[in-house]
Amino acid sequence: MFKIKHFNELSLNEFYEISKARYEVFACEQHVFEVNDFDDTDKVSYHMFSYDGDKIIAYLRIIPKEFSHYENTGIGRVLVLKEYRRSGLAKKMVDAAVEFITETLKEDSISLSAQEYVCSLYAKCGFVPVSDVYMEAGIPHVEMEYNKFKNIKVLMEKNNPTEYPKFDLPEGFSIVKYKDGYEKDWAQIQTDLDQFENIEDALKCFKDTFLDGTDDVYKKCFFIQDSKGKNIATASIWDGNHFGKTLQRIHWVAVSKECQGLGLAKCLVSAALDVFNELGFKDYIYLTSQVSSYKALNIYSKFGFTPYTDKMPINWGMDEKEFERDTKYAWRQIKLLSTKK
Predict the structure, then answer these.
(1) Statement: the pTM of the whole predicted model exceeds 0.70
(2) In 3D, which of 108, 120, 43, 42 has the Cα closest to residue 76?
(3) DSSP string of 37-84?
(4) What's the confidence (pLDDT) of residue 150?
(5) CA–CA dist 46, 241 (Å, integer)
(6) Which residues pair with 58 in a beta bridge?
C-alpha cells in the first residue's frame, strides 16, 4: 500500500506528485505561506506515499536522526488528501512509518510536531505529548514522541496487601523456597531474559542483593519448579529503602522464556503476596519496574497495585521536576502500549 524511498531514489514524476499533494494540503487548504514547504531536509529524508491511480493521496517524510532538529528521528509533512480522510489511511501510514523506523532504521525514538486537532490520531499510534501547545505557522501544535522501549523507571504500590486474587499453578509445577545452589538457576533465568550480559554478573547481583548475612533469602526468595525439578521461574519479597525507611517490595520476578504464556507470572505474584503475609508484614507493599515491562505492570494491576505518582522517592536519582515529567510520560506510554492492537 505504501512506497518508501530515499530522496535520491525518487523519480521526477514521484517528486512532482509529492510536491503537488503537499501544495494542495499545506498551501491551498491550510494557507501556510510564511514557511517554505520545500527545504534541504527533503534531500536527506525518506519519503513515504500511497497512490490512487496516478495520484498521490497520502504522504509523509522521515528525517533520519542525524539530520533531525529533534533529538530523535523525525516524522513530518504528514498529509492525506481531503477526499480520502476518515478512512483509516493516516493511521495505517503512520504505523507503517513507525515500523520502518524501528525495524529498518533501528531507531526506537521518534518525534513529530502534531497539529493539535489530530493529536488523537498519533496517540492511537503510540505517541504521547511531550510539550504544551505552541503555535507553528499560525496553527496550534503539540510535540509528540514515540518510544516503545524508553525504560523510564516506574513504581507501583498496594495499600491492602491482604486482598488479592489467588492463582493455582498448572499441573506438574510447584513452589519451592531458595536452597543453597539455586542462585545458579536464578542467574541463568535472569541472564536468558537479557537482564544481565553474563552469568557472572547475575551471580554477583544475587550475592549483593540477597546474601546479606541473614537467613532472609531462605524465607523470601522462591522458585517455581517444573515436573522434572528444574527451576524455571523466580520471585522474591525483599527490603526496599526508597521512602526513607525499610519497606517490603516484590523483587526480581522472572519466568524462563520456554515457560512463558502458562500463567506462571500471576502465580509468582500471588505467591509473593502469600510470603509477605506469612512473614507478618502489614499495610503496604510496592515494586519498581520500567516502561518496557508494561505487560508485567498489567499483571500487577490485576492484584490491586496502582501507579505511584506522589513525591519522588528517596534515592531515585533525578530531580523532582524530572521525576514528575518522566512519571507522567511513562504511565501515558504504558497505557498506550497496553491498549495498542
Answers:
(1) no
(2) 42
(3) S--GGGGGSEEEEEEETTEEEEEEEEE-GGG-SSSSEEEEEEEE-GGG
(4) 63
(5) 48
(6) 50, 80
Give φ, ψ of 61 to 5 degrees. Answer: -120, 150
Going 320 to 326 to 327 to 328, the CA torsion angle's sign is: positive
* E strand or H helix at 175: strand 174-177
Matching residue, cell 530523535: 72
Domain parsing of the chain, residue ranges: 3-147, 153-313
CA 94 – CA 62 distance, rounded (Å): 10
Protein fold of 153-313: Aminopeptidase (3.40.630)
Give the whole-angstrom CA distance, residue 192 versus residue 206. Answer: 15
Which three cell numbers, joined as nine digits, stand for 177?
523456597
SS3 296: helix
What pLDDT is attached to residue 341? 45
Burial 46-59 (b: 16+ CB within 10 A, else e): bbbbbeeeeebbbb
Beta-strand pair 247-255/285-290:
parallel
**Which helix (H) or strand (E) covers residue 232, if one does?**
strand 231-240
What would the DSSP string read from start to end of 80-119?
E-GGG-SSSHHHHHHHHHHHIIIIIS---EEEEEEEGGGH
Please state, in angstroms and rounded to a whole number, the distance separating the CA atoms of residues 233 and 59: 47
Residue 226: C-alpha distances to residues 30, 167, 195 (Å) = 63, 16, 22
Q: Which residue has the cell 492463582?
A: 167
Cβ-in-10-Å burial (0-12, 13-18, 19+) of 227 comes to exposed
CATH topology classification for 3-147: Aminopeptidase (3.40.630)
Asked if 58 and 81 count as a contact pair (C-beta separation under 8 A), the reply is: yes
Mean pLDDT by 10 residues, the chain (341 residues): 95 96 91 74 96 96 94 94 93 94 90 91 84 88 80 92 95 97 97 90 97 95 97 97 94 95 96 97 94 89 96 88 87 76 45
Q: Are 48 and 97 in contact (CB under 8 A)?
A: yes
Tell me if domain 3-147 and domain 153-313 are identical in fold: yes
